[in-house]
Write a structure and sequence with these properties.
This protein has a seven-stranded mixed beta sheet. Strands 6-7-8 form a three-stranded antiparallel beta sheet. The chain has two domains: 152 residues, Alpha-Beta Plaits (2-Layer Sandwich); 65 residues, Double Stranded RNA Binding Domain. It is an alpha+beta fold and 233 residues long. The chain is elongated and about 65 Å long.
Length: 233
């Protein structure tokens, strides 16, 4: 079972590119589901208008995942007139689909967290109470620290601190993935833009390119498994 992380992004492209990302995402997920590939949306940044997406990061799992991605990784082009700017002359809009490095994630363990209790402080520095109910949690491997003082209960604040620490670590991981994607985009050349792996046309988003290699590979594998493959003599 293969596992990969990819990002579909408009980069710094205009609103039209954000619309293309949303349309590509829909098509991509439909094809992934048909191929038996499962996905989790790790992060989704909505676009500047309805039905647009700036970028989305996906975690994919499935057999033959590398073969499936062959027809997706790279530049995707949409050919069409802007529906956001009626008199705009441009007709080719590009987005990127990139594979990101798997992060070396360490399982989150409470044993790696150091807790420190302190008095909760209210506005103006006045004590909310006279007991050490606030809890500061520090993740020792990374040094990241959070404070929880929402409750008068030390136990409740400890739980809150743990949850916030998990969220903070996840946020940092997603930021690392975003930086990777931006690096890929910055290295994207005009030559690559002129050689898209997929091209779609019109507002109905019809594909003008069908990658048959993936289907062919699957057909050959199925024939071989059924004993139908004949070797040349």
């Amino acid at each position: 079972m293969e596992e990969k992380i990819i990002q579909i992004t408009a980069g710094r492209g205009p609103l039209e590119c954000q619309w293309v990302v949303a349309k590509v995402l829909k098509t991509f997920l439909q094809e992934a589901t048909q191929a038996g590939i499962s996905y989790i949306i790790l992060n989704r940044e909505e676009g500047d208008a309805n039905l647009t997406v700036k970028s989305v990061t996906l975690q994919l799992k499935g057999k033959e995942l590398a073969s499936f991605l062959k027809s997706w990784l790279g530049t995707v082009c949409w050919v069409g007139k802007s529906t956001f700017r009626k008199f705009h002359q441009r007709s080719n809009w590009y987005i990127g689909v990139f594979e990101l490095d798997q992060l070396q994630r360490q399982p989150f363990s409470e044993r790696d967290v150091q807790f420190q209790t302190t008095r909760s402080q209210g506005n103006g520095g006045q004590n909310v109470n006279k007991v050490n109910s606030a809890v500061r949690a520090t993740h020792l491997p990374t040094g990241i620290s959070v404070l929880a003082q929402d409750s008068r209960s030390q136990l409740d604040n400890k739980k809150l601190a743990l949850n916030r620490l998990r969220e903070k670590l996840t946020e940092i991981e997603l930021q690392q993935l975003a930086e990777q994607a931006q690096h890929h985009w910055n290295n994207h050349t005009q030559v690559q833009r002129g050689n898209p792996v997929r091209t779609f046309k019109g507002t109905d988003f019809k594909s003008t390119y069908v990658d048959k290699s993936y289907k062919k590979e699957r057909a050959v594998a199925k024939r071989f498994c059924r004993g139908e493959w004949q070797f040349a003599h």
